[in-house]
TrEMBL record:
Pfam family, one: ABC_tran
Ranges of Basic and acidic residues composition bias in the record: 1-37
Ranges where the ABC transporter domain occurs: 40-275
Organism annotation: Leifsonia kafniensis
Transmembrane segments: none
Region (Disordered): 1-41
One annotated GO molecular function: ATP binding
Name of the featured protein: ABC transporter ATP-binding protein
Lineage top rank: taxon: Bacteria
UniProtKB keywords: ATP-binding, Nucleotide-binding
Amino acid sequence: MTRPRSEAHSDVHGSDAHGSEAHGPRDPRDSVPRLDAPRLQAHRITRTVDGRALIDGVDCTAPAGTLTALVGPNGAGKSTLLRILAGIDRPDQGSVTQAGTDLFRMPRRERARRIALVEQDASTELALSVTAVVALGRTPHHSLWSHDSALDASIVNSALDRVGMSEYAEREITSLSGGERQRVQLARALAQEPELLILDEPTNHLDIQAQLATLELLGGLATHGMAVLAALHDLGLAAASSDRVIVLSAGRVVAAGETRAVLTAELIREVFNVDAVLIENPLTGRPMLASATLGSVRAAVAISCPASS
Ligand SMILES: Nc1ncnc2c1ncn2[C@@H]1O[C@H](COP(=O)(O)OP(=O)(O)OP(=O)(O)O)[C@@H](O)[C@H]1O
């Protein structure tokens, strides 16, 4: 949790398209950013369903070498946006490029080599072993007739190891708990060896130790040059783990930039309707969220449920 910070710019209440041009991946050897790094860039994307704009003119970016958290209230459009950025759903308007190439003109196999998506509650009901599920991540790297190689097997084993699931390798996926399945899906995405890793609520179902380990792993991947974009419900985890945040509300980016600069008390109150402030975590030195609504919630509960005398 104490990895180097990136130099993001804050662009509060503006678009995210131009707020982080100075980003490049952190080179683990010398920390010099490379400005030609592969990156995702969405420009003015809109998605409308039944006349309602679920995504409304969004500009955003996911720079290489950075862990970007996508946050916003329930129904803000986070999952909808991530599916577009992963190339699963097309926007009605606007463009998405990855390393300068239009995502929706890219051959599907090439897109799958570049971008991995771990969806919320992603799983499979097929009776596959954990190893077989993770090996699916290697599919985009194979030609039609090629078979899994020793290299594939070692990548799969290493992915399982990184998420702490090696001892489950031979288990059937359907026999795993929600949190265990979540970690296997992350391993599948790691086996894909993408430039951009997109995750929708990767800490769902995980206990606190597994949450912190997962976010530490994602931060480590970013430190080694990957672009990581994760929707996180838990604003505290987002504050503690991310380099940058994109704040989505009602389908629009209301703020984007360096985490400490963006997540101000005013922004949190405005978007989440909560009194909270970032303070320094005495254990990690990273930001942590201190919220101040519990008292008022308790007071409200006490008023509506007066104790019987
Ligand atoms: N296919 C659809 N048809 C109609 N409305 C949809 C469709 N998909 C999503 N929505 C609506 O779009 C809005 C955004 O949904 P989305 O799942 O992207 O939000 P979210 O920010 O991920 O929410 P949460 O934090 O609750 O997971 C919601 O109001 C949802 O009901």
